[in-house]
Amino acid sequence: MLAIGAIDGFVNNMLLSLQLSSDTRRQTPQIGANIAARFRSWDRRAVIKTVRSVLVDRDGVLDQLPNVAAPALIVSGAEDTILPSAMSRRMVAKMPNARHVEVPRAAHLAPLEQPDATNALIADFIQKLPGR
């Protein structure tokens, strides 16, 4: 759908409905407007190539996660439908030193939607790292 310029408005709405919670879209629509404007400023072919490489033309990594020994924090938006918390918990279950935290009132872009809550989670994680 990204290749068809005539349906850009539809694609923008679809992408924003997947990436942002309904509260964010309703209460702070400028976040969605900024995302859509930036998205449309990028080279369309490069975006299509990037999306394909991330979502289509790649190998799965779940089987490699047990090899990740470093501490890891997996943050999910409670309303994320692109990478739901269930998937994040599945990744955490495979990693020996990981934990999952869910950000309320956020979807796929939790750092944009709930920056204070997301930053506090990350800062807390960093402060608790061994050797700090």
What does this structure look like?
There is one protein chain. The chain has 132 residues and is mainly alpha-helical. The protein is built from seven helices and two strands; from the N terminus they run H-H-H-H-E-H-E-H-H. The protein has helices spanning 8-19, 22-27, 29-41, 44-55, 85-94, 110-113, 115-127, and strands spanning 72-77, 98-103. A two-stranded parallel sheet has the order 1-2. Helix 5 (85-94) links the parallel strand 1 (72-77) and strand 2. The longest helix is centred in the N-terminal third of the chain and has 13 residues, at 29-41. The N and C termini lie far apart (47 Å). The model has no long low-confidence stretch (mean pLDDT 87).
Find the count of extended strands (DSSP E, 2+ residues): 2
Largest sheet properties: 2 strands, parallel
Radius of gyration: 17 Å
Number of helices: 7
What string, H for helix and E for strand, traces the elements in order? HHHHEHEHH
Morphology: globular
Strand order of the largest sheet: 1-2
Please give the share of residues in helix.
Answer: 40-55%
- Strand fraction band? 5-15%
Q: Determine the oligomeric state from the structure.
A: single chain
Please state the average pLDDT score.
Answer: 87
Structural class: mainly alpha
Q: Give the CA-CA distance, first to last residue.
A: 47 Å
Q: Indicate the low-confidence ranges by residue numbers.
A: none
